TrEMBL record:
Entries under SUPFAM superfamilies matching the protein: P-loop containing nucleoside triphosphate hydrolases
Gene that produces this protein: cbiO
Name listed for the protein in its UniProt record: ABC transporter ATP-binding protein
Native organism: candidate division MSBL1 archaeon SCGC-AAA259J03
Cited Gene3D superfamilies: P-loop containing nucleotide triphosphate hydrolases
Keyword flag Cell membrane: yes
Gene Ontology molecular function terms on file: ATP binding; ATP hydrolysis activity; ATPase-coupled transmembrane transporter activity
GO cellular component, one term: ATP-binding cassette (ABC) transporter complex
Gene Ontology annotations of biological process type: cobalt ion transport
Cited function: Part of an ABC transporter complex. Responsible for energy coupling to the transport system.
Family matches, as PANTHER family: ENERGY-COUPLING FACTOR TRANSPORTER ATP-BINDING PROTEIN ECFA1, HEAVY METAL TRANSPORTER
């Protein structure tokens, strides 16, 4: 598949000397869902800001559709790449929500009718249709996150770059957003690049995961990453809760060979087990159950809460 974004040997240091990125290599192909995970201060935000030219790289190369980012002007970049910042305050600066969402398409030189159409569509898709005339600074944090997403969607980009999109969203808004990302990717072919701490969401929003910790320390499918205990520990990362639950069930004799990472995978796994076990799932306490559970608690540094 065609490469949309290629990052080669990227370095970035902030003016005060903090070396945020060291020799980062990434390639993103058209139609992929890529997630970047890593501890606080790992450089995820810095990497995404380098991608759309907000920050200027210090060494290495960034190409969009094979063109060096330095040879592209701002309009070329925003036409391909819509970014939603981690902090919505950095994104919203116009007097009304409408103006903020209209800002990108207006800058692309689209006519007024097309701009209006795009703004309405983008606001509807994040559930903010009634917010057009509201001043962005008065919105709640979650509403600001949604308005920022609408501002990127109105550009109708090939690549949507999202920095912590689910942070601060209520549970319903969070699952709607995950569904939206899935739909944009599957149905509209939009490539998504997402930095997140929302580990439970990763299996649903990622075909491929990069682990960043100043440099790229690993790359693989969600399963490859979440089954690499050493990697996770070294980089302050966790696994999805459902994966842990099935590890617990295995201590009680479930014998799940491929631990599920999402609810859908859990349903498949249980259905398969039932089919091979004549419609039953057998759980029991065996000789090693308690010992295995203690090992699990240790592995996840689980703190007793009851
Ligand atoms: N404007 C800045 N000036 C100086 N240093 C900065 C600036 N912004 C970020 N840094 C530093 O660069 C490093 C990477 O920060 P960055 O925000 O990219 O991390 P992150 O992976 O996005 O973290 P988080 O998970 O907390 O969002 C950190 O050590 C941070 O303190
Ligand atoms: Mg960040």
């Amino acid at each position: 598949m065609r490469e949309i974004i290629t990052i080669k040997n990227l370095n970035y240091a902030y003016p005060d000397g903090v070396e945020a990125l060291k020799d980062v290599n990434i390639s993103i192909r058209k139609g992929e869902k890529v997630v970047i995970i890593g501890p606080n201060g790992a450089g995820k935000t810095t990497l995404l800001l380098n991608l759309n030219g907000v920050l200027e790289k210090e060494g290495g190369n960034i190409e969009i559709y094979g063109e060096n980012i330095e040879s592209l002007d701002r309009k070329d970049i925003i036409e391909h790449l819509g970014i939603v910042f981690q902090d919505p305050e950095d994104q919203l600066f116009m007097p009304t929500v409408f103006d903020d969402v209209a800002f990108g398409p207006t800058n692309l030189g689209l006519d007024e009718g097309e701009v209006k159409k795009r703004v309405r569509k983008a606001l509807a898709s994040v559930g903010l249709s009634d917010y057009e005339d509201r001043p962005p600074q008065n919105l709640s944090y979650g509403e600001k996150k949604k308005a920022s997403l609408a501002a990127a969607l109105s550009l109708e980009p090939d690549v949507l770059v999202l920095d912590e999109p689910t942070a601060e969203l209520d549970p319903k808004s969070r699952s709607e957003l995950i569904g939206k990302i899935w739909e944009l990717n599957e149905e509209e072919g939009i490539t998504t690049v997402i930095a997140t701490h929302d580990i439970n969401a990763v299996p649903e929003i990622a075909d491929r995961v990069y682990v960043l910790n100043r440099k790229i320390v690993a790359e693989g499918t969600p399963r490859e990453i979440f089954t690499n205990g050493k990697l996770l520990k070294e980089n302050n990362l966790d696994v999805p809760e459902i994966f842990k639950l099935f590890e617990v069930l295995n201590c009680f004799g479930l014998d799940s060979k491929e631990l599920p990472l999402s609810m859908d995978q859990a349903i498949d796994e249980l259905t398969k087990t039932m089919q091979t076990e004549n419609g039953h799932i057998h759980l029991h306490i065996h000789e090693h159950t308690h010992e295995d559970i203690e090992k699990l608690k240790d592995k996840y540094e689980h703190h007793q809460t009851s």
